[in-house]
């Protein structure tokens, strides 16, 4: 069986998930890997067939996305060309972990595509949702990497098509200790905003992994260091607590390690808002911002214990078996319909993402 595996390269969670699935997938199929976007900080560890610019976003420093840098870095013409030229019809199975080129190429060429990953679970009605619904955000999430078929992951198996989080083997084998520090990963905030709040708690040893710094430095009790996958996992496995954004993979890994957890969801990011709602229902502290006025909330979190007992079985092999026996394989057809007109496709893509019906 020949498989194309498309992976979103914005953020590290998609890469971490792929690291757990690929050893099982490559033993049973010939796998070509595609990554689009370049905002991840960890290496996949597998050869790439395609490295594309995709359609990603750039983390800002004030709690959200830097839309100006995102717009300047966008290569929409190249995105449209990549979608049209990607030979999805040559594969028996196409997987898309929130990766738009593979998903849209399949949609426009009428090739079945299986969406895997966390984002598909966010749209499921059985999953906890925030009190205020962001209609535009949900529309973008639904049409960014469209697929009729989904196999997804969440903190709990809220639905028959939702598995618990995939935890990479590297983390499963790490010794879990408590060295007393707090591990911090807030990629949507600048170092200054993070330090301004954390230095209010001089009794805490803060280990901050920064998306925006290339050098390590210390400000009082706050130690800033660039992102490094091994150092981050070591820090988290030996931490007393974790303070991070509401991205899925990092929060799931912290819960797997039984670490006390506080999350700060990104502003204007529907997936993280949904994750925050699910985490709050589990008993995780959610912080709306890093402003100093949140000092008392952070102080209470530091003081009190948190007991959340979730079970994340090693389910990577089971997930791969489900993928390779999925009913959509019976729908595969050699009667692909290539899209050759650039302008109509461009108009259709933009319309579906930004003005969905």
What does this protein look like?
With 357 residues, this protein is of the alpha/beta class. It has 2 domains: 2-167 and 314-354, 3-Layer(aba) Sandwich (Rossmann fold); 171-303, Glycogen Phosphorylase B (Rossmann fold, 3-Layer(aba) Sandwich). It is built from 14 helices and 14 strands. The protein has a 7-stranded parallel β-sheet, with helices on both faces.
Descriptors:
357 residues, alpha/beta, Rossmann fold, seven-stranded parallel beta sheet, 14 helices
CATH architecture of the largest domain: 3-Layer(aba) Sandwich
What level of helicity do the residues show?
25-40%
Count helical runs: 14
Mean pLDDT figure: 87
Percent of residues in beta strands? 15-25%
The tally of structural domains comes to: 2
Give the distance, in angstroms, between the N- and C-terminal Cα atoms. 36 Å
Q: Largest sheet, if any?
A: 7 strands, parallel
Tell how many strands the DSSP assignment holds.
14
Topology pattern, helix = H, strand = E: EHEEHHEHEHHEEHEHEEEHEHEHEHHH
Alpha-carbon Rg, integer: 20 Å
Which CATH class of the largest domain is shown?
Answer: Alpha Beta
